[in-house]
Each structure stands twice: as structure tokens, then as C-alpha cells.
Amino acid sequence: MESNELRIFRVVAQTGSITKAAQSLGYVQSNVTARIQQLESELKTQLFYRQRGMILTPTGEKLLAYAEKIIYLLDEADKALNDSCDPSGSLTIGANHTISSLRLPKLLAQYHKTYPKVDLSLTTNESNELIYKINHFQLDGAFVKTLPLSDENIVKELVFEETLVLISSPLYNDISDLYSKPFLMNTIGCPNRIQLENWLNSKGICNIRYMEFNNLNSIIEGVIADLGASFVPESAIKEYEEKGFLKSFQIPAQYNITKSFFIRRKDSLMTSSLSKFIEMIELNTPYQKLLPKDK
């Protein structure tokens, strides 16, 4: 069982398709098929159900867990042996939709300019998916909104707490005028959306209509155009409100606080590229270090 076979196996498992795996790896399909068959023959077991795609068998699920660890350790060894004070190599960062549009563009541009030898990449997704990728060695670090109540594999490096406000077109002076309007929010599972629902439910409002946008700028533009209202970080709309493009309303404190974290896997290697990235976040954003007992 060679490491390259495990890498091919992992990509097939992740994509659920020989065709997609071949495209991702830059191989011809017949090569990928042959390597999977060779691995199954060597292990004397079936790793995939071949019906409407490639679906892992129970044995395949077990092998995937080991493959991820083996590939991670090999890559980590390479990083450790080649790491230096001058950051280089790959750095894969994840961020949820709000954070990626609100704070990251300038930060990433600054990092790329300061450390041009680092191959920096960004993945945008929901927090739960980013946490999954952290746990499965697919990201070096990620900005997320929510965390599991307890996950011993995750370290919270930095935290940022901010206030959420209800926003609308300047046409509305009374917050009650917004209760029946559509709310422009991220998809189900977004912490801000959950807090909005809890607040509205506390006021007896349960029939909530949504227009789903996974982009903060699109949400703000939609509110300015009077498509509906939204519930967003106060820092994101200050300039718009000062220019008279929209209006904000405060809601009770138990519903208006949101926290975001920068996380990494606890047993991951702290490379110089990741260490410098964390340092740059702390110096150039409102994110702050957590005390060891809070990590």
C-alpha cells in the first residue's frame, strides 16, 4: 500500500466519483480505476459500492480515517523538515461566508505581499463544514462562527466578539414595521439567523420569511434596495448608515452578541507560515488571543 494510492483513494472517497477524482488529480480515469482496483486487491476487500457513484463500504470508511492520518503525517513531516524562519510552502485557510467578505480580502492581500513564498489558498463554506475539514486534515486553520460544545481535537487560537443589529432601508422608522418583511440571511444553520429567530419567537413572531444569500455584500445591497431586512454585524454597516443608505435598530443584548473564532487542529504542526498568519490576524483585526484555559 503506497502513499500515492492512499491519496487517490482519499480523493475518490471525497468526490464520490472516478471522473471527478481524475479531473482533480490530473490523471486519466483508467489510471484512477486501476489504482483503486489494485488497492482493493492488495487489501483483499471491497472499498467502494459502485452504484450511482463511488460510495464507501464500511471497510472503506475505516481505511479513509487511516488514510487521512497517514497523508497528514507525511505532509507534516515534509513541512517540518522544510520549515524555516522564512515562511514558505502551502497554507490552506477556511472561512465562513460573512468573515470572508468582511475582513479577509485585505488581510490575505497583506499576507501574500509580506510572505510571497507561501502558497496561500482560501476555502469558503459553512462553519460546520469547515470544522469537518479541520478535523479531517484538509485545512490548516479556519474562521468559524460556531463550535461544538466539546471537541478535544480543536484549538481556538483567537476570538472576536461583536454586536449584531437589525438593518433596513431608511424608509422605516419603527422596528415593528420590519417583522413582516422577508429577512435576507445566510442559509439554515447560520448562528446569526438562529439568534434572529430566537428574538422574533420571543415576540411571538413565528412565520418568518427568508431570502437566502451567502454573501454579506449581497445582503447589504438587497436591504438598501428594500428587498427586506437583515441581522448583521454592526461594524459591517457603519459607513452605509453614515451615508444614509440604510438604518439600523438595536435589539436586546441576550440576542445581539456573536462570536467568531480562528481555529486549528490541536495536533497540527505550527509551521512558520501558520504562526505568521495568526500573528498578522491579531495585529490587524479585532481578533484577540484566548487564555490557555479557554482554548
TrEMBL record:
<comment type="similarity">
    <text>Belongs to the LysR transcriptional regulatory family.</text>
</comment>
<dbReference type="InterPro" id="IPR005119">
    <property type="entry name" value="LysR_subst-bd"/>
</dbReference>
<keyword id="KW-0804">Transcription</keyword>
<protein>
    <submittedName>
        <fullName>HTH-type transcriptional regulator YusT</fullName>
    </submittedName>
</protein>
<dbReference type="InterPro" id="IPR036390">
    <property type="entry name" value="WH_DNA-bd_sf"/>
</dbReference>
<dbReference type="InterPro" id="IPR000847">
    <property type="entry name" value="LysR_HTH_N"/>
</dbReference>
<dbReference type="Pfam" id="PF03466">
    <property type="entry name" value="LysR_substrate"/>
</dbReference>
<keyword id="KW-0805">Transcription regulation</keyword>
<feature type="domain" description="HTH lysR-type">
    <location>
        <begin position="1"/>
        <end position="57"/>
    </location>
</feature>
<dbReference type="Pfam" id="PF00126">
    <property type="entry name" value="HTH_1"/>
</dbReference>
<keyword id="KW-0238">DNA-binding</keyword>
<dbReference type="InterPro" id="IPR036388">
    <property type="entry name" value="WH-like_DNA-bd_sf"/>
</dbReference>
